[in-house]
Design goal:
There is one protein chain. The chain is built from seven helices and 13 strands. By secondary structure, the protein is of the alpha+beta class. Among the domains are: 4-122, PLAT/LH2 domain (Lipoxygenase-1), CATH 2.60.60; 176-218. The strands form four sheets. Strands 2, 3, 4, 6 and 9 form a five-stranded antiparallel beta sheet that branches. The chain has a four-stranded antiparallel beta sheet with strand order 5-1-7-8, with no helix packed on it. The longest helix is centred in the middle third of the chain and has 20 residues, at 177-196. The N and C termini lie far apart (87 Å). Ca(2+) binds at residue 84. Belongs to the lipoxygenase family. Residues 4-123 form the PLAT domain. The record marks 108 as: Essential for stabilizing binding to COTL1.
Length: 302
């Protein structure tokens, strides 16, 4: 019997620690059938799934399994090699008919469970006709709802993501090892600088904004310099509202409130314009803080 041979190419990410020394298995699922679960063995041995590697394999089936819709991937530890973490980037499959299929993965596989990955062609719900495709879509939505759900940290403030710590998040959305170390180094260097300047434990109040420039003279970015230069401008003030945690706090003013304390003479001392004219042009925005009445303010170093 002539076997139908599918060429499978596995791409391992070039991320740090993306390598696995475990056995990797794959099953191809098509519209007309599926392959057997296949152990991926290469002449390259353990180096087939090292960081940045691209390894090719052959999966044989007694007959064509049709258009590929999904793959099942799992890895199992060897006796001499304990379970490790693997970050495959994608899997490409070329069918005997000459068709190519790409299966994006881009996630950590840290255990011995079987994971389903759909073919990369974007499909709307009613176009995903295969039962496993529909099941995979449902499971993905359930898992995302579990991993990324809202949490009420304190009643009355914007919701945050429910998570005990960054380590409880899915591996693929955490900061990389190098980025995490960079954060720790930057924080340690900044605290050391403040300690040496005698400011880390200081409780004195700032007397002038220029004092901040002298304290943080070595930690500047193009953004921090822009903020220091433009923070008093109306346009940048409004920009901070629109890009803050509550962008609807600022609104275009169509009618002045009855308790509005600002007069034309305060804004236009020379009488060159009026609030009514500027409001008609859409130039006036208001931030209504009356819903904050009664909120107790923090006492800093009091």
């Amino acid at each position: 019997m002539k076997m139908m041979k599918y060429e499978v190419t596995v791409f391992t990410s070039d991320r740090v620690s993306a390598t696995t020394l475990n056995n990797v298995f794959i099953k191809l699922v098509g519209t007309d059938g599926e392959s057997e679960r296949k152990l991926l063995i290469s002449l390259r041995g353990a180096s087939a799934f090292v960081r940045g590697a691209e390894a090719s394999f052959t999966v044989s089936c007694p007959s064509s399994i049709g258009k590929l819709v999904m793959i099942e991937v799992d890895k199992q530890p060897l006796p001499l090699f304990p379970a490790d973490s693997w970050f495959p980037a994608k899997v490409e499959v070329r069918s005997p008919e000459g068709d190519s299929f790409t299966f994006p993965i881009y996630r950590w596989i840290t255990d011995s469970k079987t994971y389903l990955f759909r073919e990369g062609t974007a499909l709307r719900v009613f176009e995903d006709l295969h039962r496993l495709g529909q099941y995979s879509r449902e499971q993905e939505l359930l898992q995302r709802h579990k991993d990324y759900c809202w949490n009420v940290y304190v009643e009355g403030i914007p919701h945050c993501m429910k998570s005990d710590s960054p380590q409880s998040l899915p591996c693929e959305v955490r900061f990389s090892f190098t980025k995490e170390k960079e954060f720790l180094f930057t924080a340690s260097a900044g605290l050391t600088e403040l300690k040496l300047k005698g400011l880390a434990d200081s409780k004195k109040s700032w007397t002038h904004l220029d004092d901040i420039n002298r304290v943080f003279c070595c930690k500047k970015t193009s953004m921090s310099e822009y903020v220091q230069e433009h923070w008093k401008e109306d346009a940048f003030f409004g920009f901070q509202f629109l890009n803050g945690v509550n962008p609807i706090m600022i609104r275009r003013c169509t009618a002045l409130p009855s308790n509005f304390p600002v007069t034309d003479s305060m804004v236009f001392p020379d009488g060159q314009a009026s609030l009514a004219e500027e409001m008609q042009k859409g130039h006036i925005f208001l931030c209504d803080y009356k819903n904050m009445d009664g909120v107790q303010a923090n006492i800093v170093n009091g």
